[in-house]
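Changelog note: in this version the structure field was regenerated for every chain. One regenerated record is shown below for reference.
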Amino acid sequence: MEYNTALEAVVSLSYRDKLRLAQLLIQLARKEEEEQAVKSTPKQAKQSSLKEEMPDFNYVKERLLKSKPRKLSSLQNFIDAMFQFKGSISESKRNQIIANLKKAKVLRIENDNVTYI
């Protein structure tokens, strides 16, 4: 169906039906956008891992120093929560971020207690 044909059909709808249709179209467009983003992700995965990790590291470090969770499990949950709206984060990537934070001397972990340096 062409745009003009659909437009003519929509004009005859009641205002409630137009609102329902608009809501459905927005949902369909968002779903299509997400599917396209997932398809483009493998291309991004081929980029250098250092470039990909640095924004995550800086983002985590900045937010972490404001919150400062004291237990290792709290730290892991905090990092997971930060990435929940970005499509989640794998356990290995989370552990890698924690290792980078230790390496950068942002924090120290002893007996499941987190100390900030």
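Spot check on this record: The two ends are 63 Å apart (CA to CA). The helical segments are 3-11, 15-45, 49-67, 72-82, 91-103.
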